[in-house]
Design goal:
The longest helix has 12 residues, at 45-56. The chain has helices spanning 6-12, 45-56, 70-78, 91-102, 119-124, 154-165, 169-177; strands at residues 17-20, 32-33, 39-40, 60-64, 83-85, 109-113, 127-130, 144-145. Helix 5 (119-124) links the parallel strand 6 and strand 7 (127-130). The strands form two sheets. A six-stranded parallel β-sheet has the order 5-4-1-6-7-8, sandwiched between helices. It has a two-stranded antiparallel ribbon with strand order 2-3. The model has no long low-confidence stretch (mean pLDDT 95). Helices cover 37% and strands 15% of the residues. With 179 residues, the chain is an alpha/beta fold. Helix 2 (45-56) runs parallel beside helix 6 (154-165). The protein starts with 5 loop residues before the first helix and ends with a helix. It has one domain: HAD superfamily/HAD-like (Rossmann fold, 3-Layer(aba) Sandwich), CATH 3.40.50.
């Protein structure tokens, strides 16, 4: 889990929406194509559970990605994530649209990224988090970095840490022991 420093706890306490990049954050960033051009991606099941935990605890989840992929649409639909922005060369436009739809301010948002296209959102969000294997150029703009790499549980680490900072993680876990 990300270290729960006072700064992190202060930034995370009022977060109402977590935005994730896809390639390099929800996936390991590798792009696989077969000879017919069909694309393949790998998502970590624990990340998906983390995204669902956020939603179950009143925190909106969104995806803003520079690339477009039907696989991402399918995965996000399966997780019940309604706010999916793909093919966003200008991620700021999607960010502003999301804030308007959810009636939020940047101070209520976390952005999780891994590379330079994420900087615009990271610099606006209250809490900016980089995955472990993020491009080093973005690290000075981040408030925290995961111990796990993108596509290998980093998103779950973010989810658990935000829930812990808001005092909601123990309750979320308890729901699974009461079954």
């Amino acid at each position: 889990m990300i270290e729960l420093s006072k700064d992190f706890q202060q930034r995370a306490k009022d977060i109402l929406c977590v935005i994730f990049d896809v390639d390099g954050v929800l996936t390991d960033g590798k792009l696989f194509f077969d000879l017919k051009g069909k694309e393949y991606k790998s998502f970590h099941a624990q990340d998906g559970q983390g995204l669902k935990l956020l939603q179950q605890n009143g925190i909106e989840v969104a995806v803003i990605s520079g690339r477009s992929s039907p696989i991402v649409d399918r995965r996000m639909k399966g997780l019940g994530i309604a706010h999916v922005y793909q093919g966003q060369e200008n991620k700021t436009a999607a960010f502003n649209d999301l804030l308007n739809k959810l009636n939020l301010t940047p101070d209520q948002v976390t952005h999780v990224g891994d590379d330079l296209p994420d900087l615009a959102l990271m610099s606006q969000a209250r809490l900016a988090i980089a995955v472990q294997d993020a491009n080093p150029s973005i690290l000075p703009y981040c408030h925290a970095q995961t111990s796990r790499c993108g596509g290998q549980g980093a998103a779950r680490e973010v989810c658990d840490t935000i829930l812990a900072a808001q005092g909601k993680l123990d309750t979320a876990v308890q729901l699974f022991t009461d079954i």
